[in-house]
Design brief:
This protein has 489 residues and is mostly helical. It has one domain (64-479): Amino acid/polyamine transporter I. 67% of the residues lie in helices and 0% in strands. It has helices at residues 22-26, 32-37, 53-64, 67-80, 84-108, 115-122, 125-161, 168-171, 182-196, 199-224, 240-251, 271-300, 312-321, 325-358, 377-393, 396-424, 439-453, 457-481, 483-488. The longest helix has 37 residues, at 125-161. 58% of the residues are buried.
Length: 489
């Protein structure tokens, strides 16, 4: 709302931003009131408000729970040893400070753009573009990375039930013994079908899948606990704190989903109240499960045996019980769990692009909404095909680290945005307030920067190249076509 309490319609009825030089144009901000008033509006249709706090929490859990445990755990344990539990705690604490900032901004600016929109309202258009470009990396690449791991558990399930597996040539990407990861492509296309059916239907399917994955993880804990040996915790931190920190940076990839609820701001029934609750509740549940499963996993199998294993939990159950029955059940849970991550993260990606397109920074096709289903169909199809091909052709390790750095960068900007908005709009109504601000947002920012520094040089090179491409697109396309730019003319 404006200061007099009125809610103006989007478009030219808003005050035009003052024209100026290049620096002024790069720093132009989109008023919070305009962001909120445009909520749900797309090209040719509107998004539908159909989700409550339960569905929003399930979206965040669905996008988060499973990724680090089912896929990345096998990569993190060789770096940290049994201390991988501390790595999950470090990554969870880092996520917590940023989650507090997300909760405040999600309740204050409840729109689909998530941190992109928060940056647009506080830090200016160029920073918002950079943030949005990072989110494209974060969401899009994480969909592909998770889909790669899905094929590993699908083979476990097929082997345990039918005695057959998909040939390596068709179940692994180039560089890992295969030519094309067909299962990874299929799970992305399956998620696309659900999303095209509508947000409410997708949320219902996701809730069922989240329930299955939680049961599967608790089942693992109950069975694997029988094989825990105290000797497996000896030499608790073999690689020192550096190894714990490096594993924590990689495992931060496992927490990216908590912000997925913020991308549903324009499809939530009561976003100011429900979004902060969903973000915080999902993070607490996920962190507790991650630490529990990781502690039992490293206790049941020596940490040296985790190297190169992308289906570590199923292997642990097979070793503990001596037969594959439990491993088959876990593999089924993992197949469902990872499909849920793909579904919800892909959903978030489409909504980020929807918001950027509505602002004119991306082609209009991404903001077109089907009038009957209330779904950005063209957007969903394009994103799904891109992510599916990426999943089928790129190895998992490189994908996970590239996702982590994009996530950390976007989270760092969200923490800064809270501080800026507190200073520039101190009297704005806030459904949730980050405690001890600006201290907690500042800590969140520093933790994100620290964990970015723990990532390898190759990841930084990839990130730098991604940023260069993004800036070229912005200066060549987005800066001139921005709706704020056209309002200046």
């Amino acid at each position: 709302m404006l200061e007099n309490g009125a809610v103006p319609p989007p478009g030219d009825s808003y005050p035009r931003p003052p024209a100026g030089g290049l620096g002024t144009r790069l720093m132009r901000r989109k008023p919070v009131e305009r962001l909120v008033a445009e909520g749900g509006q797309g090209e040719g249709g509107t998004l539908r408000r159909s989700m409550g706090v339960w569905q929003l929490t399930m979206i965040s859990i669905g996008a988060t729970l499973g990724t680090g445990i089912f896929v990345v755990l096998g990569q993190a344990v060789p770096d940290a040893g049994p201390a991988v539990v501390l790595s999950f705690v470090i990554a969870g604490i880092t996520a917590l400070f940023s989650a507090l900032s997300y909760a405040e901004l999600a309740g204050t600016i409840p729109v689909s753009g998530s941190s992109y929109s928060y940056a647009y309202a506080t830090l200016g258009e160029l920073v918002a573009w950079v943030c949005g470009w990072c989110l494209i990396l974060e969401y899009g690449v994480s969909v592909a990375a998770v889909a790669v791991g899905w094929g590993q558990y699908l083979n476990e399930l097929l082997d345990g039930t039918l005695g057959v597996t998909i040939p390596t040539a068709l179940s692994a990407p180039p560089g890992q013994g295969g030519y094309f990861n067909l299962p990874a492509l299929l799970v992305v296309l399956l998620a696309m079908v659900f999303l095209l059916g509508g947000a409410k239907e997708s949320a219902r399917a996701n809730t069922i899948m989240v329930s299955v994955k939680i049961v599967a993880l608790l089942l693992f804990c109950g069975v694997a606990f029988q094989g825990v040996k105290s000797g497996n915790y000896a030499n608790f931190m073999p690689m020192g704190m550096a190894g714990v920190s490096a594993a924590g940076a990689t495992l931060f990839f496992s927490y990216i989903g908590f912000d997925a609820a913020s991308t549903a701001g324009e499809e939530a029934r009561n976003p100011q109240r429900d979004l902060p609750r969903a973000i915080m509740l999902s993070l607490v549940i996920v962190t507790a499960l991650y630490c529990l499963v990781a502690a039992i996993a490293v206790g049941a199998m020596p940490w040296q045996k985790f190297k190169g294993s992308e289906a570590a939990l199923a292997g642990i159950l097979k070793a503990v019980t001596g037969h594959g029955y439990w491993a088959v059940l876990l593999a089924f849970g993992a197949v469902v769990a990872i499909a849920s991550v793909v579904l919800t993260v892909l959903y978030g990606q489409t909504r980020i692009l929807f918001a950027m397109s509505r602002d004119g920074l991306m082609p209009k096709a991404f903001a077109k909404v089907h009038p009957k289903s209330g779904v950005p169909r063209v957007n969903t199809v394009i994103v799904s095909l891109f992510c599916g091909v990426l999943a089928a052709a790129v190895p998992l390790g490189e994908l996970a680290d590239a996702t982590s750095i994009g996530t950390l960068f976007a989270f760092a900007l969200v923490n800064v945005a809270v501080i800026v908005l507190r200073k520039t709009r101190p009297d704005m109504p806030r459904a949730f307030r980050t405690p001890l601000a600006p201290l907690f947002p500042a800590i969140g920012f520093l933790l994100c920067v620290y964990m970015m520094g723990s990532l390898g040089p190759v990841t930084w090179v990839v990130f730098g190249a991604w940023m260069v491409v993004g800036l070229v697109i912005y200066f060549g396309y987005g800066m001139r076509r921005s709706r704020l730019a056209t309002a200046e003319k």
